[in-house]
Write a structure and sequence with these properties.
By secondary structure, the chain is mainly beta. The chain folds into three domains: 115 residues, Immunoglobulins (Immunoglobulin-like); 86 residues; 135 residues, no CATH class. Helices cover 7% and strands 43% of the residues. The chain is built from two helices and 29 strands. The strands form five sheets. Strands 14, 15, 20, 21, 22, 23, 24, 25, 26, 27, 28 and 29 form a twelve-stranded antiparallel β-sheet that branches. Strands 3, 6, 7, 9, 10 and 11 form a six-stranded mixed β-sheet that branches. The longest helix is centred in the N-terminal third of the chain and has 16 residues. The termini are far apart. 30% of the residues are buried. The N terminus is likely disordered.
């Protein structure tokens, strides 16, 4: 009897296994979209904005959803922003006020104004993507201020060193603060963009009347540099202010005597340089170095002095850093220049002993991987 039951069981299993299991990849797009008709942006708000949809879906398993945003009148062929739904498969997308503010900016809605943002949904499964023809509109009101928090900014305009041929990279010196040393070869205008390639880049300019930085298209008029002057343009998006300082007469000095080792001229592209600088450490046994009578040591310390808006300022070492002699293993940050009021014995470096009785090229690069640094090169016997 047990043998008969066993045979019957095997037969039933065989019949069951002979039926193929078929997984359906069929799915359809949503049939309705839902979102607020209007949103007044509040960047400090903890409330989220929910976009949702219903209908459609997968016959078996799940479909994946992506939400596309575009400017009013757009066709989503080049959306200004796109992202997957919550968890990728949920029938909703939850976004913050800050993100919607950024999307609205990319869609052309200026600060302190109201404009439309449109959105739609695509569904996909098994590599197949289906786009919905449904479109929903959100009227977005943006507040005043700047919402850009990136770390890149480029100088544009007709009064740039490259005659407006492309953006000139600015140094991100602190969060929201960008600096560039440059020349304006002709009277013209300047403005700023977050990218030299992205068509949806953040764009801002300085208002000619109020002096405030504003988001959107516009320009600020500048006059060409006077002979020997360089402009230092600082953009502070935190305070929405731009400053333009006039920089000239950049030189490197010995700390004990103020004797000039070299005067650096502006080369363009944020570079100052002096060639054939003779370096001879100052000491009593070398009367040609003009040692003061009180000097009882070998003076190898130096710093840079620049005229900024007509006042001599020190470009020297950071606070609290002693003037030790370099060994050759220092990082670029060892040679970083920071601006201070000029006092004789502060913010000095010591020169490498290998530079004594040599001539060399001294260079200041105002944007070397985010730092303003100096260097010595082309070292030859004096």
């Amino acid at each position: 009897m047990k043998k008969i039951i066993w045979i019957i069981t095997l037969a039933l299993l065989a019949v069951g296994c002979s039926k193929d299991y078929e997984f359906s990849a069929e799915f359809s797009i949503p049939t309705t979209l839902s979102s607020p008709a209007s949103v007044a942006i509040n960047l400090s708000s903890q409330d989220n904005i929910v976009l949702s949809w219903a209908g459609g879906g997968a016959v078996q398993g799940y479909a994946t959803y992506e939400v596309l945003f575009d400017k009013a009148g757009g066709d989503f062929s080049q959306p200004v922003y796109r992202t997957y739904s919550d968890q990728g498969v949920n029938l909703q997308l939850t976004i913050t006020h800050a993100l919607l503010n950024t999307i609205a900016r990319k869609a052309g809605v200026a600060t302190s104004s109201t404009g439309d943002v449109i959105w739609t949904v695509t569904a996909s499964k098994g590599g197949v993507v289906k786009s919905s023809k449904l479109v929903k509109t959100i009227s977005v009101t943006r507040g005043a201020g700047i919402d850009y928090s990136g770390n890149t900014l480029y100088l544009y305009g007709t009064a740039t060193e490259n005659s407006g041929a492309g953006g000139l990279a600015m140094r991100n010196s602190a969060e929201g603060v960008f600096v560039i040393y440059t020349k304006a070869p002709i009277d013209g205008n300047i403005y700023f963009k977050s990218s030299a390639t992205d068509a949806n880049a953040f764009v801002c300019y300085t208002d000619q009347t109020s002096g405030k930085i504003k988001e959107g298209n516009g320009a600020y008029n500048v006059t060409a540099n006077a002979a020997g002057e360089v402009y230092r343009i600082t953009v502070d998006l935190n305070s929405q202010l731009m400053t333009i300082d006039k920089v000239s007469n950049v030189r490197v000095l010995w700390g004990a005597t103020y004797n000039v080792i070299g005067t650096l001229s502006y080369q363009g592209n944020g570079i100052f340089k002096a060639d054939n600088c003779g370096i001879e450490f100052i000491e009593q046994s070398r009367p040609e170095t003009n040692p003061p009578s009180w000097l009882s040591w070998v003076e190898e310390r130096y710093y840079f002095i620049a005229s900024v808006n007509g006042t001599d300022m020190c470009w020297g070492r950071r606070d609290g850093v002693s003037a030790e002699r370099p060994t050759g293993s220092e990082t670029p940050a060892f040679y970083e220049l920071v601006e201070f009021p000029w006092t004789q014995w502060d913010h000095l470096w010591k020169m490498s002993g290998s530079l004594d009785m040599k001539k060399c090229t001294i260079t200041i690069n105002t944007d070397a991987n985010g730092l303003m640094i100096h260097s010595f090169s082309n070292i030859q016997p004096l």
